[in-house]
Give the backbone structure.
Amino acid sequence: MTLKNTKYIVIILALLIAFALYLQYEISNNTEKLKRLELDKVHVHAKNIVKFLKTEIDGNIYQYLVKHPEKRQVYNKILNTFMSDEFKYIFLINKDDKNHYRFLLDGDISEPVEFNSLFFPKDKQYNEVYLFKKPEIIEHKEGVEEVWLSLLYPIVNKDKTEALLVIDLSEAYGKKILNFNNPMQEIVLYMQLFLVISSIFLLGTFYNLYLLKKSLLEDKLTLAKTKMYLREFFEVQHESNYNFMLVDIDNFRLVNEKYGIKAGDKVLQDFVSEVAYRLENDSVIVRLNGAEFILAIPKKKGDIKRVTQILFRQLSEKKYLVNNNTIVLSLSISAVDTPAEIKSLLEIESILEQNMLEIKSSGKNNYVVINQNVENELRYKNMDYISQRLDNEELVCLYQPIYDIQTDKFVKYEALVRLIDNEQNTLIEPSYFVDTIRSTYRYIKMSRLVFKEVFSVLHQYEEVHLSLNLDLHDLYNEELMDFINVELYNHRSVAHRLTFEILEKHEIEDFAHVALIFQKLRTYGSKIAIDDFGSGHSNYLYLIKLDIDILKIDGTLIHALKDDPERAKVVLASICALAEKQGYEVVAEFVSDSKLYEEVKALGIRYVQGYHFGKPKAIKEYCGDCK
């Protein structure tokens, strides 16, 4: 039984109880209705008897029977003919001058009561019926055996009661009527018993569930809330109404190791009490594990940066007594000013955790409040966020032109991938997300989308040449390389207009393997370029070991023409001379202004790329008139 479905069990049980009560009511109502129907039949029976007697007897019944004693036995037999299994007795009585009831007729011919014998009623209603002249059903409480009910039917002549016709319904008939619905009553009784037992069981279960839920929602040691409580809390509250902090006590295990577990537990209890005292009751304190806590603080408390600063100072200055020693805790706090458009608590936790890693890696004992820009950066690095963009194919390529100085034309465009952030109406650069998804299937998915667009452009614009970045790690990804080779084959008619720019952050160890991959990539005419040549691990050994087509000189060397022009010119000139001798094309990157352009042009470099010629844009903005 989970916490969420208990309400449904209560609803179902309540409906069953209501149904059982309804059945009980209907059965009782039906029994009462059946009883009324049968009594209505008795009334009709009595009415027919009285009608018969009035027809046969002219005048007062008692006087008639006194004058005609021979008729008594006849009328007794006639009353007997009205007898049935339902009736125990049918007889006629009247009152004498002394108000004593006496028998006039008796339908029991086997043992008839003698005429004018005394009759002693057990119920005062006989007198009421005699007096008020209205038929009435009476129920015998004592003194009358084998009789269920009696109908007292007055025989009235000239507004005076002459006699009472009494019809006694048998006890057996009453039991038959009252027990008619017994099978259904037993079922309902068992149902009610079952529901009573179930209710008792459910109450016990609810109580145990309450204890369990309390243990799940409240940390036993510190009495802080648990992560489950936080989840349930924000099912009814909106995250954007709160700011959040992730608080970690740095190296808390050292406290446990030095002073013992019990002392460490006491410090945690005191720490939570101190936080609760500083934040007051409307904030939520959640213990995640060990010495890590999440704080949900209402925005009405004020600016989160100021709140974090004050809380960090107060908690950092707090001294705790441990085994007659005082200690001060080192804290790392990651806080976020929650934006209004935040979607989930999970997203907030991810932001806090990623920022906490950066705090820890930079030395701990510090706090950082994430503003909107940093929050976006962290969000862009989130795996779930990236996956969603890729699943929705929210990806686009921008293109930066490469300019040919000799022909004064754009001869090639470098494809640069971007994810689309529709919420912020912006594009996300690969520096945020590529490292996060590398070595995952999502990286393959991104590559498929990029190649799909690149080949679409090559087919659409017959004169356009494109270059595409490949990281050195990509060359060792067999699944990716198999995909690229298949794509080159499928688009072999345009593959000669595609250049692969090799990016690398690590030194190549297996040149033979890389050389074989380069050979496969060049099968259909594609070219190989070494990107950022002259920086990092890119060196002249590449030119000896690998068969390449293009050198793209690292932008830092180009910008060195501003800071140290003479030395930079010597290095660049040597690269150009070697490239010319080996037949490599040379591209100067990051040419951002006219001065750098003139310097590069003076060195004899033919191809240049940078903001001076164009920023990354959609291909149609550069090739609107291209064929």
Notes: The mean pLDDT is 85. The chain has three domains: 6-178, 227-380, 383-622.
